[in-house]
Amino acid sequence: MLERLTRRVIAAPRLVLTLTVVLLALAGIYGIGAAERMLSGGFEDPGSESTRAARVIDQTFGQGGPEVVIKLDAPAGTDISTDPAGAAVGTRITEELAALPYVQQPILSIWTAPDLAGELLSRDKSSTQIVAGVSGGDEFAPGHAEHIASTFTGERDGISVRVGGQALVFQQINDQTSRDLAVAEAIAIPISFLLLIVVFGGVVAAALPVLVGIVAIVGTLALLRLITLFADVSIFALNLTTAMGLALAIDYTLLIVTRYREEVAAGRDRPEAIVRTINTAGRTVVFSAITVGLALAALAIFPMYFLRSFAYAGIGVVIVAVAAAVIVTPALLMVLGDRVDALDLRRPVRRLLRRGEPVAKPIEETGWYRVAQWVLRRAVPAGLAVVVLLVVLGLPFGGIKFGFPDDRVLPASASSHAIQQEIRADYDQSSAGTVPLVVEGGIAEQPLADYAAALSQVPGVTMVTGPVGGFADGARVAPATDGTSKDGIALLSVLSDTEPLSDAGEDQLRALRAVPQPTDARVSFSGLAAANADTVDSLFHYLPWVLLTIAVATYLLLFLFTGSVVLPFKALVLNVLSLTATFGAMVWIFQDGHLDGLGTTSTGMLVATMPVLMFCIAFGLSMDYEVFLLGRIREEWLASGRTRADNDHAVAVGLARTGRVVTAAALLMAIVFAGIAASEVSFMRMFGVGLALAVLMDATLIRMVLVPAFMRLAGRWNWWAPGPLRRLHDRIGLTEE
Question: What pTM did the predictor assign?
């Protein structure tokens, strides 16, 4: 099929390129508005208890939307609760908020709810908060919060007014991500192009991967905008689209152009060299794309649309990148011909040094071959040394803790982060720690009052409010809260002085859930602590199925590619070892705060969805290099006498022929991910740093040391399969022959 496709492409290459330009223009026009249709949330399981509770609160009481916090600061030494200017400003802001159609009631302030002074007034009484929920969910609430911030931020009658809250956190993450994306592209594309010039030696050849990468990025943006018509898509999928589009295009084009040069150097004319290239390197590219795509597709198993979005983006970018690599690249090679090596910067350097054209060395005389032989001769000590290193790097992974993203994922300069930090430092408690409870079943007043009283006795709870009054330490201390009972549903609010995203917050939530609930009632917990716990539980519920899907699919595909039952197992084990080391480093840096978290705020936990996402992407990319390497090793093995010595020779030749390509591709991909590492959103910085480290570690320690060491020790057993499976592979296997 690939050969037929390639022959048709090179028969009319200019037509193919013209159609590509037209499709690219249409995709660019359609996809340019993709970001405006994407959302900044999606971290929660839509079927979880906390999400369901939030939905009931919204539909029944018109409350529970993401919070906006307006912080009022009076001059030092002023008691804003009694200051006439402060009261006038606060009352006026409350009235203006109430007039906005998307602001939910009640609006809490020390003037409308004096019983909540412990939560809304700072210890020195010079600062206070006005707290309100905004409607619109992930799609509209962040925009509403931004409008509130632009409307109210400033100074009124000597009172400083600033805006924060979770709703504004989402909007500022959105804005920051868009800015970071431009920075990532500005870093990755020019640096990658310069490095490609070094790798290829010429400007024209170096431009091919960049062109294919642009096709992949633009095409995937159009696909993502199309998907937004049917499903929620996270704004962070744009980062993956840019990074993976450019990285895979570089990988695939680098492999194809390198193989094309080999075929031309071997004496084949241009059309046959292109056909042979796609039949060998092109097949490897297609197979590699399948493995990467399957690893990313497994993210669709999770119910959170944040993770599902990366499945959409990953599958889209893989499809477009591989199509561009096996269709556009042959057309470009056919049209350019020898001009693919035009503007070769190596030639003037050689003339300056008075050196002639280089003479191609036999593969056995190259540096990569000698490195491979060195590893093969020292398989046991070299392999053990790398394994020990990876195990040591992976030790911190055992202490990983998962959490929910809050204001601290933003830089300290972001208003929502700065305000929340001030609240943590200057207030006895925060509205972020409030745990709303939905009690369904129409239970009588006394059982509900007994339940509220029991909840108020949990350590760290300052008050429980609701339709039966306010309770503290088991005693009623305040009248009933209006608007908290309707249609047999009661809304209780558990006020707390505990940071919700902390170990203490987790302990408190468990204690609250352990309080005996009223008979015949259904109690559902919401709030940040509950959302955090439910998200982590959901991830662990689905994670085994995701890992099993990836492992089985990868094993089967590598069997079809190699005909061996040993090599796929080896690939899985080495990949897990490499990724464990990567995650150990991420825990050490970003969770534990070593190296000052590379400029981020360490919270003692990692955003729960990110390690899962990084695993799927890094696993797919590592299989990318595995396929590149095994493809050449197997090609040499099949052409040999298939003895133990032939196995070692095939490994050395495969490494020699792919070492430069894999190393260059890994370095280029690391640069792409380094662009993401420049992000000011902490979990995206971890994403970029982690994937760059994973790629470099895989291309060096794994591919260049552990793979040859293992294959040396296994010998001919590398290629073993039971008779029935061997015959099955002979019939349906995927090969480069």
Answer: 0.84
In degrees and rounded to multiples of 5, residue 69 shows phi and psi of -115, 120
C-alpha distances out from residue 112 to 78, 115, 167, Å? 20, 9, 22
Q: Is 413 exposed, middle or buried (0-12, 13-18, 19+ CB in 10 A)?
A: exposed
DSSP state, 608? T
Residues 633, 638, 643, 649, CA torsion sign: negative
* pLDDT one-digit tens code per residue, 159-175: 899 998 888 988 888 88
Helix (H) or strand (E) holding 227: helix 203-227
Rounded Cα gap, residues 361 and 355, in angstroms:
16
| pLDDT tens figures, 120-140 | 888 888 999 998 889 887 778
Rounded to an integer, the average pLDDT of 180-195 is 81
| 679 touches 180 (CB < 8 A) | yes
Q: What is the mean pLDDT of the chain?
A: 86
Structure tokens at 730: 């002979």
Q: What is the pLDDT of residue 453?
A: 93
In angstroms, the CA 120 to CA 377 distance is 70
Residue 525 parent element (H or E): strand 522-525
Task: Compute the average pLDDT of residues 398-410.
Answer: 86
DSSP-based three-state secondary structure for 414: coil
CA distances from 366 to 258, 333, 373, 507, 652 (A): 16, 27, 11, 61, 11
**DSSP classification of residue 77:** T
